[in-house]
Amino acid sequence: MHRDPGALEAARALNAGCHCVKVDVAALRRAVEARLQSAGLPGELAASHPHLFSRVPVFLSGAHARRMADTVKAVEAAVALPAYRDAVLDRSPEIARHDSGTRGAFLGFDFHLSESGPKLIEINTNAGGGLLAAMLGDAATSCCGSAAAGGGDTGRFERQAIEMLDAEWRHAGRSGQPRAIAIVDEAPGSQYLYPEFLLMQSALLRAGRVAVITAPHALALRDGELYAGDLQVDLVYNRLTDFALEAAAHRGLRDAYLGGNAVVTPNPRAHALYADKRALALLGDAAWLRDMGLDPAWAELLGEVVPGTEVVNAADGRRLWQQRRSLFFKPFAGYGSRGAYRGDKLTRRVFEQILEGGYVAQDLVPPGERVLTKDSSPLKFDVRNFAYAGGVQLLAARLWQGQTTNFRSEGGGFAPVLVIP
Fold first, then answer.
1. What pLDDT, in 10s, does the model give residues 319-339?
2. CA dihedral angle for residue 56, residue 129, residue 154, residue 169, rounded to 10 degrees
3. DSSP annotation of 151
4. By three-state DSSP, how is residue 418 classified?
5. What is the C-alpha to C-alpha distance for residues 235 and 412, in angstroms, rounded to an integer?
6. Which of 224, 231, 292, 368 is deepest in the core (most CB within 10 A)?
7. Are residues 119 and 150 in the same domain?
């Protein structure tokens, strides 16, 4: 890879020892609450989300930021290959073969930083936190100036989000723009990132769109149109983690998607192509990608950036148990670190359950570390690239303590990313 030793070492040193640059979390919460309240929406974050925002930024070298952006482009090129699509869709649920023409909005590419550079540990199709992270970028820019190159401008990211939904509408063969948009999740009011749903709704309303937040059981097909209550819905911004829309309560949405009665993004096809963890086994196989027609430079990059990943088979149980301390086990359709295990933390009972199927084993790549104060233990962090159509829209970090990402760690949460030029 192309390296910039000065920037790499500067970022590492700042993450280990910079305690002077801080985000005013209280002011940030007030800004989010004011934005929600200005749209007539509830928003009391301080009590309900004490660990949503970290008070420190994460530093990233320009070389690493460029490497991540190139990886996003390389993945997009691989996903466009007919051979890649065939290989993925042949083992996916039937609904994933339905092609509505959309590309998949709100992708998140999550990276850990290793000694040899960024490693793409997973891709998510309903990546959360973008609008919240953009506000963090605003806060970082106010105290750090142009160094917050990976962060934000809330207004810019809001415009990008709406333009992305409009692009999905056009990719689905529709003209103009969607007028009525439903943000759909199971019991949305109880979701931890519900404030983001409210921010998205607020942005859409200010852009002159009709926007509702609803649970999927409230959706129904009537006379060839999808309705949320009495509102006819043109487009669904889908936050469900039932990625194949299999639940009985999701039938209305499923039927509307398959029947072309509404544009749904992200959808089962996008999840299969990008976010099913088995896809990483293909994306990390440089030789296979070259044979399938991917540009050799992109194939080499993905072979270096994607950690070794294999589908778990019971026949390999003895070898995997012996190697478990250097592996991380993830369910195919996992999200939010649910059901994921570090191999060195595994009990034999859980390992036997993993061998029953539905998992991949990935080479363990430890996350980065960020020290908050001189006297505190470091927090772990990853870097999320929010992306669409092969382009990175925003960088954000997540800080935590423990085995996997969470929003329960003191000092943890979303953090702005400051790129060292």
1. 999 999 999 999 997 776 778
2. 160
3. S
4. strand
5. 34
6. 368
7. yes
121 within 8 A of 374, measured Cβ to Cβ: no
Rounded to whole angstroms, the Cα distance separating 49 from 413 reads: 10
**Closest CA relative to residue 168, chosen from 234, 226, 103:** 103
Phi, psi of 242 (to 5 degrees): -85, 85
For the chain, the domain total comes to: 2
380 and 353 in one domain? Answer: no
How do residues 161-173 score in pLDDT, each as one tens digit? 999 999 999 999 9
Same domain assignment for residues 281 and 328: no
Q: What's 348's domain CATH number? A: 3.30.1490.20
Residue 287 carries which side chain, given as an amino acid letter? A
Question: What is the residue range of 324's domain?
Answer: 308-363
Q: Are residues 342 and 199 in the same domain?
A: no
d(CA 194, CA 199): 9
81 and 141 housed in the same domain: yes
Report pLDDT for 34: 74
**288 and 349 share one domain:** no
The CA-to-CA distance between both ends of the chain, in Å, stands at 17
Phi, psi of 220 (to 5 degrees): -150, 145
Q: Is the dihedral of CA 134, 140, 144, 150 positive or negative?
A: negative
CB 384 within 8 A of CB 132: no
158/130 Cα distance (integer angstroms): 9
Residue 146 has pLDDT above 60, yes or no: no
